[in-house]
User: Fold these one by one.
Assistant:
Number 1:
Amino acid sequence: MKTILLCGLLATLLQGCAYKPIIDTAGKSSSNFDTNQAKEITNNIQHCDKIAKDNTNFVSNILYWSVSPTMDTKYESIVRKCLTQRGHSILN
């Protein structure tokens, strides 16, 4: 029983390492930006991914995930917030 629970927990946490945000690239995402930010999406994904990896580790992801009402890891939360602050509309 413990082995199954541990495998399930590890699979859930490893899924956070492969987070791929769904981004709506059509139109402006907020009133803070006058232009469409989609042209910068590749660069912004790379920067946000680097920032998130530099500021998280396995333990911080577990702790954040355990109290997150949406079951997000800290990594996912940082990437989502970073992309949103750069003007992209994140759907997941």
Note: Residues 2-90 form one domain.
Number 2:
Amino acid sequence: MAIKKPAEVSGKAATATAPKKSAPSTASKELTADELLAANLGTLTTVVGTLSETLDMLVQKVESMAYHIIATEEVLAEVVATSGLDLARVNARIRAKIADGTDNQGDSSRAVDVAASIASPIPKCCK
């Protein structure tokens, strides 16, 4: 004796779709306005906390970069003061590099100013 499938027992052909589960009653699952507000505030609190942590991490990274840049500038200033520098050649290289990297759209004036600042003699007050 063969075991009959549920569709065969009822006499109907089996369908390709799975049987549907009855949806829970929406009336018993509806949240009140206060509950929705509390849930949304909880979600917002979590998101703001995550954003705050991310922002703190980014500030620490930027701070670290600033320390590295300042240290590098000061080391370069000492090297320049000791060995000398052809600032015109440095400026030409800066302009060429920025022009090449930006299809001649970039403004190299800030980089040239930074190079001049690094290459300038150290003020007597700071020695």
Note: Residues 33-83 form the longest helix (51 residues).
Number 3:
Amino acid sequence: MNRTTIDLWVGIFVALGLGAIVFLSLKVGNLASFKTDEGYHLEARFDNIGGLKVRAPVKSSGVVVGRVERIRLDTKTYEAIATLRIEPSYLFTKDTIASILTSGLLGEQYIGLEAGGDTVMLKEGDRVAKTQSAVVLEKMLSQFMFGKAAEMGGSSGNGPAPAPAANPAAPSAPAAGANAGGTTK
């Protein structure tokens, strides 16, 4: 092979490698969806969204049925509002529950939709009434640690735990100086 043929093949190989890197980057960032379906939009309000991001999947029974399109903060209620774009082929009932879940132990967060039994379906612009916020691992760990500290001697850490209150219905203890037999010497 001559020099120009080798250079041509190296150039093709490098271009394919760069294309693969770009494709994988888009796939990892949930940006590789080429669907043009508009679908319909739903709104869900959460106290805490944890690490939920725009373009995160919306799943029902493990099947991706949409994406998180927008996340914003309501400045009056201080709740996070997630706007979901649901594919038009999937319909959900009015009593659907939206939960923020995590794939694996420390994986990506997504919204899980659990349909209820209502006969009325959600439509464009409706709000999912029942939501469950994200479980924040740090908050759970601190609650566990402080709970254990309270069991081991008080939550303040400033000395021994207070003595339990006396039960007024319990019989009184023998007077000082009395022996076990109840007689004094």
Note: The helical segments are 3-28, 137-151.
Number 4:
Amino acid sequence: MKGYFSAMLFACAALAGCGSVTSGLDFKAPAGWTATPSILGRMQLWIKKGSDNKQGQMVFLIRGQTANTMNFKDLPQAGTAIRDQKQSEIKICGNQRAQYMSGVGTSSKNGDQALEMVSAPVGNESYLAMYIRPQSQRADPEAEAAIRSLCIKR
């Protein structure tokens, strides 16, 4: 059974026939970042490699995440220790309610990472967008704008 599921997941990702996580969204990924294929139409990742190929930046987009239960500690990409966690309600796409969280995660592999997340309902789905960068680097304005672009496509 495990082999069957793995083969199905691989085939779906390889053929990109499972839909797009950005379908129906006016999501604007940062220009020039490398996109991974959408995984089952539920998750996609954009990467900007650092000058040392180690300290890169990432933007995640996940469809189907519940806004009321989001927590950095539930995401393995956030690292093992989260501090300075802040949460607030913001407006995106004009007047759409969204939940914003920021914090600093520490991992043994990448050190301190700045984390920003926006979660919002869009149509019948909930979306979570996350931006991760080395704490020592300035935030990329396009990446910060991307996580706030969870808007219905017009």
Note: The chain has one domain: 19-147.
